[in-house]
Amino acid sequence: MTHPWIPMTETEKREMLTFLHLQDTTQLYRDVPEDVQLQRPLSLPPALSEAEASRLFRQHAAANLNTLQASCFLGAGAYDHFVPAICDWVTSRGEFLTAYTPYQAEASQGVLTAIFEYQSMIATLCGCAIANASMYDGASACAEALLLAVAHTGRAKVLVSQALHPHYLQTLRTYLAGQSIEVETLPQQKDGRTSMQALQQQISEDVAAVCLAQPNFYGAIETIAPFAQAAHQAGALFVTTAYPIALGLLQPPGEAGADVVVGEGQPLGCHLNWGGPYVGFFAAQQPFLRRLPGRIVGETQDGQGRRGYVLTMQTREQHIRRERATSNICTNETLLTLANAAYLAWMGPQGLRRVAELSLQKAHYTARQLVAAGFHLPYEAPFFNEFVVDLRCPAAPVVEKLAERGILAGVPLSTFDPQRTTQLLIAVTEQRTRSEIDTLVEGLKEVCLQ
Amino acid sequence: MTHPWIPMTETEKREMLTFLHLQDTTQLYRDVPEDVQLQRPLSLPPALSEAEASRLFRQHAAANLNTLQASCFLGAGAYDHFVPAICDWVTSRGEFLTAYTPYQAEASQGVLTAIFEYQSMIATLCGCAIANASMYDGASACAEALLLAVAHTGRAKVLVSQALHPHYLQTLRTYLAGQSIEVETLPQQKDGRTSMQALQQQISEDVAAVCLAQPNFYGAIETIAPFAQAAHQAGALFVTTAYPIALGLLQPPGEAGADVVVGEGQPLGCHLNWGGPYVGFFAAQQPFLRRLPGRIVGETQDGQGRRGYVLTMQTREQHIRRERATSNICTNETLLTLANAAYLAWMGPQGLRRVAELSLQKAHYTARQLVAAGFHLPYEAPFFNEFVVDLRCPAAPVVEKLAERGILAGVPLSTFDPQRTTQLLIAVTEQRTRSEIDTLVEGLKEVCLQ
Amino acid sequence: MKSTEAQVGVADPLQDASTVLLFEESRPGRIGFSLPTDDVEEQPLDALLPGVALRSQPPALPELSEGQIVRHFTKLAHANYSVDEGFYPLGSCTMKYNPKIDDALASLDGFTALHPLQPLSTVSGTLAVCEALQRALAEISGMDCVSLHPAAGAHGELGGLLVIRAYHEAREPGQRTEVLIPNTAHGTNPASAAMAGYRVVEVPTDIQGNIDLGALKQLVGPQTAALMLTNPNTLGLFEQQITEVTACLHDVGALVYYDGANMNAILGVARPREMGFDVVHLNLHKTFATPHGGGGPGAGALGVRDFLVPYLPGEWVERDGEEYRLTHGEASIGRLRAFFGNVANLIRALVYIRCMGAEGLRHAAETAVLNANYLLAHVRELFSPAYDRSCMHEFVVSASVLKQRGIKAIDVAKRLLDYGFYAPTIYFPLNVPEALMVEPTETESKATLDAFADALRAIVQEAQTYPQVLREAPHRTPVGRLDEVTAARHPKLVFTSSDYAR
Amino acid sequence: MKSTEAQVGVADPLQDASTVLLFEESRPGRIGFSLPTDDVEEQPLDALLPGVALRSQPPALPELSEGQIVRHFTKLAHANYSVDEGFYPLGSCTMKYNPKIDDALASLDGFTALHPLQPLSTVSGTLAVCEALQRALAEISGMDCVSLHPAAGAHGELGGLLVIRAYHEAREPGQRTEVLIPNTAHGTNPASAAMAGYRVVEVPTDIQGNIDLGALKQLVGPQTAALMLTNPNTLGLFEQQITEVTACLHDVGALVYYDGANMNAILGVARPREMGFDVVHLNLHKTFATPHGGGGPGAGALGVRDFLVPYLPGEWVERDGEEYRLTHGEASIGRLRAFFGNVANLIRALVYIRCMGAEGLRHAAETAVLNANYLLAHVRELFSPAYDRSCMHEFVVSASVLKQRGIKAIDVAKRLLDYGFYAPTIYFPLNVPEALMVEPTETESKATLDAFADALRAIVQEAQTYPQVLREAPHRTPVGRLDEVTAARHPKLVFTSSDYAR
Ligand SMILES: Cc1ncc(COP(=O)(O)O)c(C=O)c1O
Ligand SMILES: Cc1ncc(COP(=O)(O)O)c(C=O)c1O
Fold first, then answer.
1. Could you give the 3-state DSSP secondary structure of residue A92?
2. Which residues make beta-bridge pairs with C283?
3. What is the C-alpha radius of gyration for chain B, rounded to an integer number of angstroms?
4. Which of A22, A205, C351, D254 is the most exposed place for a label (fewest CB within 10 A)?
5. Coil, strand, or helix at residue B311?
């Protein structure tokens, strides 16, 4: 057979088989025991031509309600910030897109230089000394940060805020389960923040790490410095997840005492993509350099003194250190770090601040309008661009109803916690217009308050 | 002000002004007489951010009914053949997309090599010795071919088939009007073809060119060799337009005696784009080498004997020959020649034949079904993938009605000729499925025959 | 990948590897295509095409897998300089940054997958875009109506001159046979005039670099159909007596054509209308940032004063409340091409204009002019400016100062390639010997301008010390200086099957 | 642009120009962003964020125009080798052609602009894609249920091992503490096992290159949780006694994990299920042609036999007539990440599978294996094959024959870059000294394989005549051989504001 993605011709095949003294390709599989060989063709739908595939997948795409058609007020760990065209442009360049991990640095200076720039940007954003070249996503990055703390302290318990993203909590439990590390949660206060009082009670000399989210899952901005202090006093590390857009305005956790700052890089120029690929960032202070998981790029020189970049400190990694590696991560999310780097360069310090301000202002406008419309916000702590509203009626059906009108109204918290039936988590980005917000508020009023 | 597409900072601006001993930028315009200076800002809608533009233009795009949503049976000079992803990939490469005409050959080998390959492919497709590096579109290419014939023969009259695309006829009249060249048409026979008999009567020693379309506008495949012979006997050139996909099957006009073969390159991997940009191809026999309009790329060597490509025979062109140039064309449609080259390489000889066969078979199936449904096809000459059907009721409203159901049923010939009220021109490409065709026939039956 | 070292003791493994052509990689029987299977009953060809002459052998197209084609074009791309890679100071071409968002939006299915003849009711989004662009360009140029029909500048010129011709013919048939064109004009101007059937009369340039008003007055007359003018002109200078110039034409009943190639200098500062022009083309692929595609597609919008509207070529969009419709002039000169226009570029241009806004456009113009003057101030000590005035968005200098070292403009141009820059336009305008025409545009940074000035300085230095290096330049490109003379004398324009044999 | 000549008599103008970092091009006050104006009444920050600690100074991000960023990344792209440019014989990585249509379809707004938590009723298209992919991968691997949750192979490994752990813990709590892993295994296998809390026990390789069955039998026992195996193994050899191997594990109540990195060799030929595997991960970024992105994103689908379904991580799609819904295992090990999976790559993988079909996939496998054997037959005379058997889709040879000339595997690798190829995987597997691991894949042409063999031949020749050239290679890359030792000893991982000063 011939296939457009396989250049070998029938003539060449015969030539090559002859060269190998073979009759046909099945002989190549003589090492595969007969009883293991599949005696039938795979049962798959018939092959499509490119034109047919193109039409079919366009139909699939059109069957979805996308956030460019609808007004999206969903957050909860993934945010509808604008993705500048330059980010798609960067990630679709074949030289980046179709390269492997840069094992041969001299032929891979493009991606290595870009990662170095990415690391630098993430570090300054988080207020940390260093950063790695990406993790799978924010949740797994958080789990790996806790594993770092466990390895560093030799302790086997972590204290994690109950107000972390529920998926992050689940992920870190999965990751930590293997090594039988105890996960204890810190309760949420009435105002939405994590209880500092609880920390003081729960912290002890066997705690490896204290972990908060900034802002937390329910939108509340944590006062993190005291947590950092308390953790450090007990010899534990202090880890935060951070929403990178918020860091355009908020104090970088690294400056407030965080040892490791992780988070989800999706808001920095990556499409929502129904959940992936996303990219976890991982920044840390200098002492944890040799405990970092994942790839790290460093600067060096060639024989003529020309600057160049390489994968470095590889003795931490699985291909060298194997079962004693800092992590098993191999393929990571490099391409998205290029989108992050392009995004952050495009924004610059002014733009990042502005996108944060716009999100903040519009979210607070939304909250004010909701309150004016008679809705109640259960938490009083300051919030950035995301907050909980109590609809006083089950949120999930409301969301379904508004979706039919092209409004993705928020995330019903019942998704994560059946007790929170009437609570809706709303996020607002710079992309929402006042009129979209007003329509949301009207819609909620209409569906809930009548 | 600052703008993301303008890198100059306020500080740099001041530095530069100081360097120039100027106070402000308005002084740069001291040569512009005061009364000519605009005393108000341009009246344009307020500037949009990228995010806002992105949303607005997506709304515009969504307001259209596109041929990936609808079943498209429209032809008449622009065809809904499949555009392989590789064509978009080639034309979106920044190195090609954002380059200028390759005046400095050594830094522009990419596009020059590609054009050389394109010229080679067009020449073999048309059965000609040479081809140029593109014209604006098929219609203007046809006009320029006639101008070539006029210049070559020194005669001032052309005989053009009445069955040429009406837009081509209009275009060549516009082009030829300037130089007061007489355009006489050859009538269409009852079977759909151009009348050979008429040619014999109308041809004379003052005719510069005879021009046919292959297939002609009404779908009929012309028997072109006798026309070529008759033209040559009278010392005229023979020019054809050709539908490049059909050339996968049909005899190349160059082999049947055409001196110049022109046509629309859109079907070869270019999007329909509501009419443009398209790309005219222009192939000719060797004797017309120095009369070709437009850019031409030729092979040469550097000082070390390495092969390379350059714009050549520039003494034909406007920037050297000025008012005595073979044409005024300067910027042409180079990027689309790359799409054409990628398309033809992707297809190869087998694929091009196959896409022609599929279009042929599906068109004839459509015709059979229409006849079976009781419709009449006015022309009896063989056709390729396009034909006229008489709906026996006004075609334009039928087309409007079917468009509402997502069927773009064809081109009502009343668009071009008010006499042809009930005629519909239908084109079928490899993209149409049997079920789409059946739905079209059903739809036409329902709307017309009841 | 770039090479930085060649002395490796053994032959450089890729030294002699010139680009392999698609044809040379072809192998019989290989395929790259994938096509739907036929779902209708296939009939024999001779039943469907009785008596039709078919191909006796397949076209000699290459046979490659898709991946091989991708590699081929990737390698070609790497051998092509572009604005995306670096500074492109090509005078008269306005090689500014082409915003990525313009491409992204013009590539939406909802724009690209539209047949030009589908019912207008199904393309209201595109009609809205075209109408808005027409309005914006009318405002920018001051013209009363704009047709988006022409595919490029020269296409617009032809259309515009035919409009002028139709106008005069309707009034004074056969009277006006001449078009006046300055000797500095771009080649398309006389070529278009000739295609439109006019005799071209050249107008000299005065010592200020303006059109020679005295000479012009001698040349105009009842036989004059029009003057074609670029302003700023192709010397990068604003015609200081522009209103006198246009009045001089109007006084004899002739019209004035504005070649808008240099409009980038004066966006929002001055408009052709107030200067007295009657017909204007705008190169959207210059001033309005649509990418040039290595030689096109462009788009050459054509605007005219009200009395010329009946003659406009092609169709334009008219808005009627919420409805859009196509319209055309009652006495239209006709079509210049089959369909509406280069729509994908029209979309790009409107995105650009909408994202710039009025203030942004003026800022672009002022910055372009500032950049050019700044660069000229650096370059003026190296090469003699053609005319010693402050320039608009570009300037022309002469490399003849290097003549005594045997160095020509082309040598400077080729050597610039080694420095990582594209070359300026050379040998144009024709009235300046050894012309180098430099246009930095507003999208270049001061750092780039400084680096370019440094490179020119270094090259002038090299001209003194190692002139041979310049004469043999370029040295860092995929091929060395190519022999254009042989290419033109013994043209090899296609790869043929006999080449396969080699 | 490539250089082909450097002796130009004067200093090469770009000789010392290494890449300028974005930070180094930054100028205060320049912007690249454009953001909507605020249409709500802005409130003072301290009113909205009372008592909240704000940034005291802006992050040290670079300040650039959009066009400058485009140029920067264009230049970086030109300094990056990729499958789109040439042969990438990186063993174990399956660097095949990544079809452009996959990227085009995965990039449609309708797929990319979907929030992971929007109502399922609004994402039925994506659910349909995921469900179809699950089914296809289940069929290809023979597993009963597939979760598309893991982001990469190693992520799947961790998930799979935790599944195994959960399964054993439910039956025999605390009993099974060891995972057996061949000494040829990829580093992620032991690393994943350790993360899952297992003790890693290494299994030797026999002289045929198979897992040492005798040794294995000694090592298994009631403490054994699982064996992790790649088949074909990382020597490119099919485990000839695979059914005995898996039976040996099952006999002691242990499970067998299939590392699917090498699945490309046996698509449609043999399936992990029939070999006796219980858990499988498939690297979609290898076998199923999703591009590797310079280091990800990948996707590591995880399939299991029916009795393990309750433990699967994440969620998967179930079809119920026309409806799709998400489901998860009753005793799921939980999430390995926040959301469903690397969806954009899942779309690409399904497009690939749909365009290949069953026959196409098998053809791909057979061609990959034929290509590898063909290349091995050429290379065998130059380097010693690690095991002298016919190989599957890749092979491992040793460069130790060049040791007496002081040449190591890395020198061969670096010199290959000069010949326009990427290098094979080197120094892996660990049991082969100076290993070169070569995987040509099915998307390379015979001509490319021949050229690669020629290059290796030339390099072996150079090792005899000019060994220094190899030791100092590469010579044709943007930078020469980089000092990795210093990089690791004195890590400089970020550009800091003090660098600005320099
Ligand atoms: C001054 C001038 N006029 C006219 C043209 C012709 O425009 P186009 O190439 O778009 O046909 C150009 C293009 O370079 C030009 O610079
Ligand atoms: C044999 C083998 N196993 C596992 C992996 C890890 O897969 P990933 O990089 O997708 O995490 C690889 C990747 O190179 C591999 O080659």
1. helix
2. C300
3. 25
4. A205
5. strand
Give chain A positions within 8 Å (CB) of C4.
306
Q: Which amino acid is at A21?
A: H
Ligand 1 centre to CA of C160 (Å) is 14
Residue D428, domain CATH: 3.90.1150.10
Round to whole Å and give the CA distance between B225 and C122: 41
Q: Specify the number of domains making up chain A.
A: 2
**Residue C11: other Cβ atoms inside 10 A:** 10
Q: Is the CB of C188 under 6 A from ligand 1?
A: yes
Nearest Cα residue in chain B from A55: B68
| CATH code, domain carrying A418 | 3.90.1150.10
Provide the 3-class DSSP secondary structure of residue C271: coil
CB contact under 8 A, D445 and C78: no
How deeply is C170 buried, as exposed, middle or buried, from its count of CB atoms within 10 A (0-12, 13-18, 19+)? exposed
Establish whether residue C92 lines the binding site of ligand 1, counting it when its CB lies within 6 angstroms of any ligand atom: yes
CB-based contacts of B381, cutoff 8 Å, min separation 6: B189, B191, B192, B193, B220, B221
Tokens of B373: 């449904």
User: Structure tokens of D464?
Assistant: 């005899």
Q: Model pTM greater than 0.95?
A: yes
Tokens for C88, please give them.
């492109």
Domain count of the fold of chain D: 3
Complex ipTM: 0.97
Q: What is the edge-to-edge ordering of all strands in the sheet holding B386-390?
A: B386-390, B423-427, B411-412
Residues D66 and D150 in one domain: no
DSSP annotation of C53 reads P
Q: Which residues of C touch D3 (CB under 8 A)?
A: 2-4, 6, 475-477
For the Cβ of C283 lying below 6 angstroms from any atom of ligand 1, the answer is yes
Closest Cβ opposite residue D28 in set B9, B51, B88: B9
> How many contacts (CB atoms, under 8 Å) link B and D?
58
Of A343, A324, A153, give the one whose Cα is nearest residue A244: A343
Task: Let me know whether C315 and C170 are in one domain.
Answer: yes
B205 lies in which domain range? Answer: 85-344
Q: How far apart are CA C76 and CA B98, in angstroms?
A: 14
Is the bond into B33 cis (omega within 30 degrees of 0)?
Answer: no
D114: its two tokens: 């979907």
A407-408 and A71-72: which strand pairing? parallel
Q: Find the domain containing D468 and state its range.
A: 358-489
B340 and B386 together in one domain: no
B301 Cβ partners below 8 Å, 6+ apart? B307, B308, C482, C483, C486
Does residue A47 fall inside a structural domain?
A: no
CA of B86 to the centre of ligand 2 (A): 29
What's the Cα-to-Cα distance from B189 to each of A185, B216, B226, C227, rounded to whole Å? 89, 12, 15, 47
Cα–Cα distance measured from residue A235 to residue A233, given in angstroms and rounded to the nearest whole number? 5
pLDDT in tens, chain D (502 residues): 333 333 444 556 655 556 899 999 999 999 999 999 999 999 999 999 999 999 999 999 999 999 999 999 999 999 999 999 999 999 999 999 999 999 999 999 999 999 999 999 999 999 999 999 999 999 999 999 999 999 999 999 999 999 999 999 999 999 999 999 999 999 999 999 999 999 999 999 999 999 999 999 999 999 999 999 999 999 999 999 999 999 999 999 999 999 999 999 999 999 999 999 999 999 999 999 999 999 999 999 999 999 999 999 999 999 999 899 999 999 999 999 999 999 999 999 999 999 999 999 999 999 999 999 999 999 999 998 989 899 999 999 999 999 999 999 999 999 999 999 999 999 999 999 999 999 999 999 999 999 999 999 999 999 999 999 999 999 999 999 999 999 999 999 999 877 765 5
C145-180 pLDDT, tens per residue?
999 999 999 999 999 999 999 999 999 999 999 999
Does residue C349 fall inside a structural domain? yes
What token pair was written down for A177? 């389960």
D370/A88 touch (CB, cutoff 8 Å), yes or no: no
